[in-house]
Amino acid sequence: MILDHSRRRPVERARATLRLALRYAADGVVGIGMAGEESHSLRPFADVLREARDAGLHLVHHAGEMCGPDSIREALDVGMAERLGHGIRVLDDPELLAEVRDRAVPLEVCPSSNVALGLVPSYGGHPLPRLTGAGLAVTLSTDIPSVAGVRLTDEYRRARDAFGYDDEALAALARAAADASFAPEETKARLHREVDDWLASPD
Predict the structure, then answer these.
(1) What's 201's DSSP letter?
(2) Residue 2 near residue 33 (C-beta atoms within 8 A)
(3) I want to staple 67 with a disulfide (CB 3.0 to 4.6 A). Which of 71, 115, 122, 188 is the partner?
(4) Domain that holds residue 150
(5) How many domains does the chain have?
(6) What residues contact 19, with CB distance under 8 A and at least 6 apart?
(7) What positions carry a catalytic annotation?
(8) What residues contact 66, with CB distance under 8 A and at least 6 apart?
(9) pLDDT at 145 over 90
């Protein structure tokens, strides 16, 4: 589990989120992240995020969804993000795209959510294929289920229908998700085996 904190909430509350994460780290809380409106800077939270990193927690922030490349740079530099929630606006800045690719920072891409929020005009017009084509580490993910109403299996089905992805392409997305996770290496290996078994299945 990763505990999110809204950028619009006070720093003191973010510190309380950090304390909560540390208290339950042994029970499966692996990180904290900054979510919500990206126009609210991460800079006021820099000390809290540094403490989280130094304590061994992972950092995952929403960036590059509603705001542009600057929000991604801030998430990487100020927020020390190991993974980016969304990140689709990385395509607006070739230099940043190359940096994110070279650093192998995974993107949690949520097409149905982006369409539901009006950030992308249609599923077929989503930049998911451009992101994978650019060599980025891309996971197919879900967001705001109360608005998008989509489960992860639905998201994979939509990607297949919209982009003509075959089983190999879907498997690549699933493998990328396993690799981007903070799960133990044995769990990642098991997930890779399960993807391989699915590909080998006649069904």
Answers:
(1) S
(2) yes
(3) 71
(4) 2-200
(5) 1
(6) none
(7) 65
(8) 37, 38, 39, 117, 119
(9) no
Dihedral over Cα of 94, 95, 101, 107: its sign: negative
pLDDT value at residue 88: 98
What pLDDT score was predicted for residue 149? 82
pLDDT (tens digit, 9 = 90+) per residue, 9-38? 999 999 999 999 999 999 999 999 999 889
What CATH number did the domain enclosing 86 receive?
3.20.20.140
Whose tokens are 């891309």? That residue is: 138
pTM given for the model: 0.94
pLDDT at 172 over 80: yes
Q: What length does the chain have?
A: 203
The span from the CA of 138 to the CA of 105, in Å, is 9
Q: What is the DSSP string of 5-43?
A: EETTS-HHHHHHHHHHHHHTGGGT--EEEEES-TTS-SG
CA–CA separation, 118 vs 125, rounded Å? Answer: 12
Mean pLDDT computed over every residue of the chain: 96
Q: pLDDT band at 58, cuts 50/70/90?
A: very high
Q: Cβ neighbours of residue 16 under 8 Å, at least 6 residues apart?
A: none
Q: Would you state the structure tokens that stand for residue 167, as one six-digit string?
A: 């089983």
